[in-house]
Design goal:
The chain has 817 residues and is an alpha/beta fold. The longest helix has 20 residues, at 243-262.
């Protein structure tokens, strides 16, 4: 029997949300009659004082497992390179910036020299100005050319909101330059009547990789006057381009470079990123070009106090009687309430839209018990809001009218929210880079800041709050992406051929896998070779072959049965587990029951309901080894990496009570199996190793299954992934290895680089996994160590002690290098 752990699908339950009375750490006398903090309120307190007040009250102090103090840092200044136009320097000075920080001047120098450069410095370190000064200078030079357009620049952001925010910043900064700089946003929201003006007259176009892929590159003849003089391509927040999405963007950029060469331009790439490990290497894989790194942060920073916070255990029990901790959602709502009472301007980051709304509602209810006017000073901020609503929230936060905001990662990237005093992070966001990005939202004006990571009941979160060195003594992760993934590369080769027929000269640009893929695409009648070039053969748009953010397959539309109203969509890969018949589906705070799922038409019909239960899909998974790329001995066992085929079938679903998680019943389902060809890391153990670990046949399945769950939970610490990006299978006797085997695989066709990263860091990864299980306080296993929220087998069987002994024996034989 195989015990599986799927990469996507099951909703993460919030668990119990019982909120105890608010702990009033600050007397109401600290507020002025207007409702704003008076001058001597805690808004003026140091970060440590704010934390001290949060920990006042019964059992509060015990919840802080570690406090890290980051001392203030003084600025190091430089002068702008002399080749920056004097008008641009004057515009920057009129914005209140007399001298650049050293890293800004250095990055600008590289850009002026025609070298692609990545600025990888901390949040609020002025990365935008580092690339804007050479860009504005070049646009000013170009405006004096005889044709009036002269030079153009392209800006790419991962989100529409960030592009719009950057346009406002550019307009403000470039206002003294008059019409020499003409910024314009070009994305899916740009009105049709404005698009032609952007193509013909804008010289700084702000867009996103999706629009570049679907809108600009396929229509390149209409963009020829923009592409011909293209001097700079700015890629903002480039650390977000990782995994399959990053691999797609890498190929989109290669297509852009190819078209630029066709029109006679060779743009310089300017990349900006939160501090990242090996930023130059990641930037080179993304762009396909040599990139110079600027990572020495010369910006000033106020004192930062970073606390790790573990919610307490409740009296409730979950699966198999495991103890249940208070949810990070409930704990964060309480902390946001207390900070608001203190007058501390704060943002609480949460992973889901539902969580953001829930935290704001809970905080508002608790604040209303203190003072109804305070309840109006907390709100939610998430994707899906109208732009004017989003800007109003940002302005209210700036002005101090709004004291607390519960936000998704929509607020994480780049958008200027200076003036915050504290950040709460409800659950580890998946990577250290994202953690520091969120924490950096506070203290952006140079003042001190408080950051609090509130742990979820999850193996990784529990490990981190008890092993602070894993956060504070380690560099941020390397960005993992694989542009050569054939599932990614193939549709982009088709798109490139539709733009301009592919020739042998293009093989090097698109990577070593291109030569092998072209004959396969020709055999599939997608491409046809004529003389020395491959041509797109179909009438359909080749760019529509792939959604660069999608999971593959047509999304399933969720439709309200009674009205025909479209509620939203679900990725095809998640449909079987989330919108099967009988599933409970959540949408914008409302609960729906799925009445039917039509896989042929990709439609799920739902009706609004209030069931007293949640649903969890159960499935079976089989995995077969297709090819072993590399393997190394771990004593008598082996550690391997290669290609696998995963066959998964959802067979039933459980109904569980909302609060206790008690199983109310199981319903069978008749859904077709799905197959996934991907990449995996796996390890085997021999009978001698099992004997040494005292793992007998009765507990072997549970020990392997527990080790698999915990290792999946810990992998995000070593690769830039989320546990929902990866899956696993454990088998007491696998037919391909003929040994007990644990597999961890990428949950994307062709792989995403996560399993490869796991293979190369296996010793450290599995050591941390063993520590996470062994250090957990529970007796037989719980969500903090070996239970998984997405286990297809209902967390059966699991054996905690067997997993610890098995990993201990395995690691004794692990190679040291």
């Amino acid at each position: 029997m195989a015990f599986n752990h799927l990469p996507a699908g099951v909703h993460d339950a919030f668990g119990p949300l019982s909120i105890p009375p608010v702990t009033h750490s600050v007397p109401m006398a600290n507020f002025s009659p207007t409702g704003r903090p008076s001058r001597d309120t805690p808004a003026q307190l140091s970060p440590q004082s704010a934390l001290d007040r949060l920990t006042t009250g019964p059992s509060r102090a015990a919840r802080v497992t570690h406090t890290e103090h980051l001392p203030p840092r003084a600025a190091r200044y430089a002068v702008w390179p002399h080749r920056i136009r004097a008008e641009v320097v004057a515009a920057v000075q009129s914005a209140g910036i007399d001298h650049p920080w050293a890293h800004q001047a250095r990055a600008a120098e590289h850009a002026l020299d025609g070298e692609s450069v990545v600025v990888a410095t901390g949040t609020a370190s002025g990365k935008s100005l580092a690339y804007l000064t050479p860009v504005l200078s070049a646009l000013l030079d170009g405006s004096e050319a005889p044709n009036g357009r002269g030079t153009t620049a392209l800006y790419l952001a991962p989100t529409k909101a960030l592009a719009a925010d950057q346009r406002r910043s550019v307009r403000a900064l470039a206002a003294p330059l008059g019409t020499a700089v003409r910024p314009a946003v070009y994305d899916g929201d740009t009105p049709v009547e404005e698009r032609e003006w952007v193509r013909q007259y804008a010289n700084y176009v702000l867009t996103n990789p999706d629009m570049l892929h679907r809108g600009i590159l396929p229509s390149h003849p209409r963009w020829s006057s923009f592409l011909r003089p293209l001097r700079y391509v700015v890629i903002d927040e480039c650390h977000t381009y990782r995994g399959v999405f990053g691999s797609h963007v890498a190929q989109v950029l290669r297509r852009l470079r190819r078209l630029c060469a066709r029109y006679g331009s060779d743009p310089v790439f300017l990349l900006a990123s939160a501090t990242a490990a090996e930023p130059a290497l990641a930037a080179e894989r993304l762009t396909g070009l040599p990139v110079t790194e600027v990572a020495d942060d010369a910006s000033p920073r106020g004192e930062v106090v970073f606390a790790l916070w573990e919610p307490p255990l409740t009296e409730l029990h979950g699966e198999k009687g495991a103890p249940v901790r208070r949810t990070a959602t409930a704990e964060t709502a309480e902390l946001l309430t207390d900070l608001t009472v203190q007058g501390v301007r704060s943002v609480a980051f949460v992973r889901s839209r539902r969580g953001a709304e829930l935290i704001s509602v809970i905080a508002q209810e608790r604040l209303a018990e203190v003072d109804r006017s305070l309840a109006r000073r907390v709100a939610a901020y998430r994707g899906g809001y109208l732009p004017e609503e989003r800007r109003a929230l940002e302005q209210a936060l700036h002005s101090g009218e709004l004291l607390g905001l519960a936000a998704t990662t929509a607020l994480e990237l780049g958008i200027d929210v200076s003036g915050l005093d504290a950040v709460l992070i409800a659950g580890y966001p998946g990577t250290r880079a994202s953690l520091w990005q969120q924490a950096g939202r506070a203290g952006r004006s140079g003042q001190g800041a408080l950051a609090v990571l509130v742990a979820r009941d999850d193996p990784l979160d529990t490990y981190l709050v008890h092993h602070p060195e894993a956060l504070f003594d380690q560099p941020v992760e390397s960005t993992v992406l694989d542009p050569d993934n054939p599932y990614v590369l193939a549709p982009h080769l088709c798109a490139a051929a539709a733009e301009i027929p592919l020739t042998d000269d293009d093989l090097k640009l698109f990577g070593p896998a291109t030569e092998e893929l072209l004959p396969q695409l020709e055999a599939a009648k997608l491409l046809r070779r004529r003389t020395k070039a491959w041509h797109w053969t179909r009438r359909e748009r080749a760019a529509d072959l792939t959604d660069i953010r999608g999971e593959g397959g047509r999304p399933v539309q969720v439709v309200e049965e009674g009205t025909g109203r479209l509620l939203g969509t679900v990725d095809a890969s998640a449909a079987h587990t989330t919108v099967h018949e009988g599933a409970v589906h959540l949408h914008q705070g409302r609960t729906y029951l799925v009445r039917s799922l039509d896989l042929d038409d990709s439609v799920a019909l739902v009706e609004e309901a209030v069931p007293p239960y949640s649903t969890t899909a159960r499935d079976t998974t089989a995995i077969s080894v297709l090819d072993t790329d590399t393997e190394i001995p771990w004593g008598p066992g082996r550690l391997c990496y290669g290609s696998v085929e995963v066959t998964n079938q959802v067979v039933s679903f459980l109904r569980r009570k909302l609060i206790t998680g008690e199983v109310l019943g199981e319903t069978k389902l008749d859904l077709p199996p799905r197959t996934l060809r991907t990449r995996a890391v796996w390890w085997t153990v021999t009978e001698d190793q099992l004997d040494a670990a005292r793992v007998n046949p009765e507990i072997l399945g549970g020990a392997l299954h527990a080790a698999e769950h915990a290792s999946i939970g810990m992998l995000p610490l070593f690769a830039t992934c989320d546990r929902w990006d990866i899956g696993g299978v454990s088998v007491p006797l696998h037919p391909d290895t003929l040994l007990p085997t644990v597999f961890v695989y990428d949950g994307h066709p062709g792989g995403a680089g996560f399993a490869e990263r796991a293979f190369h860091t296996a010793r450290a990864w599995l050591t941390a996994t063993r520590q996470a299980i062994a250090s957990c306080e529970c007796e037989a296993g719980c969500p903090s160590c070996i239970q998984s929220p997405k286990c297809g087998n209902g967390n059966e069987p699991l054996h905690k002690r067997g997993a610890v002994r098995l990993l201990t024996t395995l690691l004794k034989d692990a190679p040291t290098a």
